[in-house]
Amino acid sequence: MSFDLDSLKVFVRVAELRSFTQAAQQLGMPKARASAHVQRLEGELGARLLRRSTRVVYLTAEGEVLLKRAHSFLAEAEEIGALFQAGRGLRGRVRVELPVLIARDFVIPRLPELLARHPQLQLDICASDRIVAALREGLDVVLRVGPVDEPGLVGRRIGEATMMNCASPSYLRQHGTPRTLEDLRDHLVVHYATDSAPVFEYFDGTTYKELPMRSALTVDNYDAYEAACIAGLGIVQLPRPGQERHASKLVEILPELTARPVPITLLHTHGRAAPRRVRAVMTWLTELLSPVVSELVKPL
């Protein structure tokens, strides 16, 4: 039995998103065409794959079986095609999500090299400091700075960014330079938007602890976090890589009381069978970022 690969790709996206509307938007096609693809696939297989309600799409038992094998099947089909395109470079679209700082300062400046080698490759760079659901957003590759708690992602850690405590010269002139943990009780931190209250994390020689702090400002992205510190609005705890560009604007304080290192992990959303173009982009990102991380990061 044979069936249309495009229809299988549409089925996978609909099944993962549980929505024809979202799948059609990500695939750049009308909703009716996405529905027609799935109906064609169901007709070819002689099985109902999805149940549709007014708000959500559910997999049938047959759909569950197909979804478990579809990624590896599609990847194998792409590999077979790649055997005859080995000399023609990569082709197709890869959607990559990166933190703003890493996208802006490290990845985008080097993209001309990658695209010159693979002119038929298309990249969507989603630069954001907000953690979005990679599968739901249709991403192929994500770089996570911090703990990863997303089922369905596969990848590896490429390093751990050591942390540093910083304040601006103007802040220290106004509030004084803290020398001890006790001194921090008279200081402010810039609060990075999370579910928790503002704290100062530190290592006490045995374990990492959090000291509750006061904050006059809460921000929700890394650029604003840095800018608030430079403006003298409070103390921040930053990953050390990349901070040399602020050497005249930020002063390191309390170097013996740093927060725990943050893991840097590169992941994809294709299970055990990532397409060749996705693997190649991940290899390029790893080769590009590992030296940056290793300069100021404890090796794993």
TrEMBL record:
PROSITE patterns: HTH_LYSR
Alphabetized InterPro entries for the sequence: LysR-type_TF_proteobact-type (IPR058163), LysR_HTH_N (IPR000847), LysR_subst-bd (IPR005119), WH-like_DNA-bd_sf (IPR036388), WH_DNA-bd_sf (IPR036390)
UniProt keyword ATP-binding, yes or no: no
Coiled coil: none
Swiss-Prot/TrEMBL keywords: DNA-binding, Transcription, Transcription regulation
Signal sequence residues: none
Keyword set includes DNA-binding: yes
HTH lysR-type domain ranges (all copies): 3-60
PANTHER family given in the database record: HTH-TYPE TRANSCRIPTIONAL REGULATOR, LYSR FAMILY TRANSCRIPTIONAL REGULATOR
Family membership: Belongs to the LysR transcriptional regulatory family.
Protein's UniProt name: LysR family transcriptional regulator
Organism: Nannocystis bainbridge
Lineage: Bacteria, Pseudomonadati, Myxococcota, Polyangia, Nannocystales
